[in-house]
Amino acid sequence: MEKLFISRDSLKKLLDRLARNLNLVAPVKDPEGIIMFGPVADAGQVLLEYQNSTLPPKSFFFPQTERLFKFSYGQEGMALEDMCGSDKRVLFGVHPCDLKSILSLDPVFAGAYKDPYYINKRENSAIIGLACSNPSPGCFCATFGFGPDDGEGSDIMLTPSGKGFDADVLTDKGQEIVASYKDLFEKAGDSPRIAGETRLTVKKLDLTGIKELLDGNFELEYWNQVFEKCLGCGICTYVCPTCHCFDIYDSSKGGCDGERYRSWDSCMFTHFTMMAGGHNPRPSKKERVRNRFMHKLKYHIDRYGLAGCVGCGRCVKSCPVNIDIRRIISDLGEVSRNGQL
Amino acid sequence: MREIARDLLESGQVNLVIGYGRGTGILRTTPVFIRKPSDAGQLVYNPLCGNNLVKYLLDQRNKEGRAAVCVKGCDSRAVNRLIQDRQIDREKVYIIGLPCGGILDPDRVEGAVDPGEEIKETVISGEGYDLITAAGKYSFTMAGAGSEKCSTCQNHNPVVYDVMAGDPSDTPDIKDDGFDDVRKIEEMTVEQKSAYWDRQFSRCLRCYACRNSCTACSCRECVFDQVNTGWVSRSSNLSENTAFHLIRAFHVAGRCVDCGECERVCPVGIPLRVLNRKILMDLKDLFNTATPGLTPDGERVLGQFSADDPEEFM
Fold first, then answer.
1. Distances from the Cα of A235 to the Cα of A116, A240, A313, B185, B266, angstroms
2. Which residue of chain A has the CA closest to B205?
3. Which helix (H) or strand (E) holds A29?
4. Are the C-beta atoms of B78 and B51 separated by less than 8 Å?
5. Residue B231 phi, psi dihedral angles, 5° rounding
């Protein structure tokens, strides 16, 4: 790993040049004050310090709606046109929780089952991480064994330091960027890294006993105390950086052609597990709410050995009825210790 | 409120009280479902009780017994609307009225208070509130930190209730809503309006929180869940998102009580309320009607037939 430094001015130059030469995606604030990752034309719009974006950057690897292929039927039979492919791009300013979430998605889409759409975007993207210098009160990334300055998952990790940023070059992709713009980087100095202090402010929740509790108890009286207020909307799953469920549809405007696309789906929706025959194995909000937390705290760990939650706090902030995964974690801890709340 | 809830449950008048409970942190409260008299102490009421709990009455529609629900003025209009729509039976609900001097917007309070703190007491003070916590007193004015919707509030006290918890609010109701928010958008050129709404709707996630929190959305199966019919596709893009929001706005026309839940719950800040208020404003202009749900037997502009209707558009 190479340790470099980039001044604020140089970073702006870097962003300008990246935007000119490649596709640059970075956190920006729209006129309504909503922070989202989006394509940017120059450094001017890019936020260099922000509390977590309203939506995570996952849609740049797994878009909410993604066209898979076109089909047409003529005298020659069925013809298919593949729509897989993406331009080279740089994702800038990704916080450690979102970096971790991409690592959590990798085994889903690029593990035993290879998803070419995801893999293509992943391979064509370089990620410049940005340490979180002002974590929001809802953040609890420390719970999952990392902190607001953890660079794993990035190609280059920036951490505020002195009058600029320390830049840890972590991968070959990162090296390529540095090599292309080496005039902008300098040798790392010894100014202390600012994000080192913020690590202390992020909450660390106790996960002791929760996985074991859920392993042994599919049915828990506790869920009866949680589900009733759920409105059954998809906010928590759609703002979640690790949720990855989708459904596949064909659409045709008549005639002999059309296209197949996939769109995010949510386990909180009534129809999510609806079977063709009309049976729904998760008939009420109780089963659906339970599934979401089982997925975050158990199933993802069972399948991939990775946490299904990265503590970004987005669902905490956005849930309209205050179903708070931090509360669920502390409650389940209590249940595992005392058998009840 | 706690005493009322305890008495109702103890005497068996109701088997459920739906109210507000302590949320996680000072900025939030959370809906609670109280079934045991001894749990009534969980109920809280403070200026961060934003949710309209009337939506939950729809879940109780086909259940045994009577449910009590805590309502603020704006929420109470939804009770009337649901009764008028025969969605709920007046005999099966017990309404605990809550006086309200306005609700604080958590986004506008955040930053001023340590979110880990808890409200010990709320004091109405001048044009706002003092929130007393263990760390001290935090003062907020409605003008500085209030919810946008409260600036046009026409019912600081419920319009329908079985019992009031506390003295009625003496905050003056707004009698003539100027619909400034709607007019601001109406003043835009067609191109500006189009660009404005395109920007809003392109952010939409189609999470359906606006629909699921809406008391006017009481369909057993929503048209937007009928994917196989082809009315609207599941793909999220500007065209489909626009169709979703416009169809929804028209569908709740004359039934929207302007409680503002759709806008409150939207995770990406789409100003949905102004869309519904445009229709509300037109209904008032065209039919000289009150906000839906204002009275128990109020007219239903788009839900009744009159032989005298001029039908000038036919």
1. 27, 8, 13, 28, 9
2. A238
3. strand A23-29
4. no
5. -60, -45
Q: In A49-121, which ranges are E strands?
A: 65-74, 77-82, 89-94
Query: Tokens 């034309």 — which residue?
Result: A41
Report how many Cβ contacts below 8 Å link chain A to chain B: 110
Å between B203 CA and nearest CA of chain A: 9
* Interchain CB distance below 8 Å, A251 and B233: yes
Closest by Cβ to A232, choosing from B115, B212, B236: B212
Is A322–B199 a contact, with Cβ atoms under 8 angstroms apart? no
Residue range A2-50, pLDDT digits in tens: 999 999 999 999 999 999 999 999 999 998 889 999 999 999 999 999 9
Spell out which chain B residues touch chain A, with contact meaning CB-CB distance below 8 angstroms.
23-25, 28-33, 51, 55-56, 59, 110, 114-116, 199-200, 203, 205-209, 211-213, 225, 227, 233-237, 261, 264-265, 267-269, 271
**Considering only alpha carbons, which residue of chain A is nearest residue B18?**
A229
CB–CB of B236 and A263 under 8 A? yes
Q: Where are the beta strands (DSSP E) in chain B?
A: 16-22, 29-34, 67-71, 93-97, 121-125, 128-133, 136-141, 163-164
- Longest CA pairwise span in chain A (Å): 71
Q: What is the pLDDT along chain B (314 residues), one digit of tens a residue?
A: 999 999 999 999 999 999 999 999 888 999 999 999 999 999 999 999 999 999 999 999 889 999 999 999 999 999 999 999 999 999 999 999 999 999 999 988 887 887 777 788 888 887 889 888 888 889 999 999 999 999 999 999 999 999 999 999 999 999 888 999 999 999 999 999 999 999 999 999 999 999 999 999 999 889 998 877 777 888 899 999 999 999 999 999 999 999 999 999 999 999 999 999 999 999 999 888 889 999 888 777 887 777 887 777 76
With contacts defined as CB-CB under 8 Å, which chain A residues touch B211? 233
Task: Give contacts of B203 with chain A, Cβ < 8 Å.
Answer: 30, 34, 36
Nearest Cα residue in chain A from B233: A251
Contacts of B115 in chain A (CB under 8 A): 137-138
Beta-carbon separation of A238 and B200 below 8 A: no
Q: What is the C-alpha separation between A88 and A101, in angstroms, rounded? A: 21
* Token pair 């330091």: residue: A161
The tokens for A33 are 């004050």
Q: Do B236 and A65 touch (CB under 8 A)?
A: yes
Q: N- to C-terminal Cα distance for chain B?
A: 52
> Which ranges of B119-251 would DSSP assign to H, the alpha helix?
142-145, 180-186, 190-202, 209-213, 238-251
> Could you give the C-alpha distances from B194 to B188, B198, B204, in angstroms and in order?
9, 6, 16
Cα–Cα distance for residue pair B277/A117, rounded to 1 Å:
42
Question: Three-state SS for A163?
Answer: coil
Question: What six digits make up the tokens of B56?
Answer: 């939950």
Which chain B residues contact residue A247 at CB under 8 A? 234
